[in-house]
Amino acid sequence: MSEYSDDYEDGNALAGPLGELFAVDVTTATSRCTGCGRSGPVAGLRVYTHAPGLVARCPGCEQVMLRLVRGPDAAWLDLSGTASLRVSLPAG
Fold first, then answer.
1. Which of 12, 13, 34, 40 registers the highest number of CB atoms within 10 A of its CB?
2. Pairing outcome for strands 39-41 and 30-33
3. Count of C-beta atoms within a 10 Å radius of residue 63
């Protein structure tokens, strides 16, 4: 049984906030967890919105993979729980 609440959203909740920082849709990127090594789309992460900012956890082991906090004039992105982030680029 998980020690974390089942009250989360999927990684698509990150689309708007990450869209402010990146020119590509990061929710389609493939992320790899530092905890269990699971790979999958950012949209498949479990996003908790009840903190100051967004916390995205691995659906496999619940490792925190991403933290995003936005202030009025800056954003802080912590990917320390993400071993890699593969972003597909448009052809051309």
1. 13
2. antiparallel
3. 15
